[in-house]
């Protein structure tokens, strides 16, 4: 199959199952203002996150990597009354753009935005001693994914779910000698998963409008 075919199938699914409103559509175009590739999750992936959060009954969600707020909106809209979402973004201009999209989507009141280096902010969340998270979505700097996962495990409850995006990297994750920092980070992350007795996990390859990649789903065992 070709990229055109993958995109065509995504377009079909979007036409029959998509329910993207103007706020989501605006957040999906955040990359344009920053002259960046389309690095956010796709509409089907956003809906998958939303459904996972609802299936999980998640009342507390942590997101590492806000970007334009697209996945944030999907996740926030899955929260029950009284639920909260904490999201972390390194780049202030991205976070400011996301804040506008969250306001437009009507979810700003249930989202706590943090701006700064995630590996500096995550320890402060642990020190604050708040309730554990039910679901964590990691979609940030790929070389640091193992450290993000370590904190996600620390901050989540038994029975919680951790989702890590972009784990396939166009197939490069299978290349043991690849020197790229993101590839090395993802390989180290999977080796960590294999050695971690507290979780049961799987990684799924995906194709679609955003190309060839995949995600990892990890369940924290009771």
TrEMBL record:
Give the highest taxon in the source lineage. Answer: Bacteria
The Gene Ontology biological process annotation of the record reads: methylation
By its UniProt entry, which PROSITE patterns does this protein fall under? SAM_OMT_I (PS51682)
Q: Which InterPro entries match?
A: Cation-dep_OMT, SAM-dependent_MTases_sf, SAM_O-MeTrfase
Write the record's keywords in alphabetical order, separated by commas.
Methyltransferase, S-adenosyl-L-methionine, Transferase
Has UniProt tagged this entry with the keyword Methyltransferase? Answer: yes
Pfam families named in the record: Methyltransf_3
In Gene Ontology terms, what is one molecular function of this protein? methyltransferase activity
* Keyword set includes Methyltransferase: yes
PANTHER family in UniProt: CAFFEOYL-COA O-METHYLTRANSFERASE 3-RELATED, O-METHYLTRANSFERASE-RELATED
Protein name listed in UniProt: O-methyltransferase
- Show the taxonomic lineage: Bacteria, Bacillati, Actinomycetota, Actinomycetes, Kitasatosporales
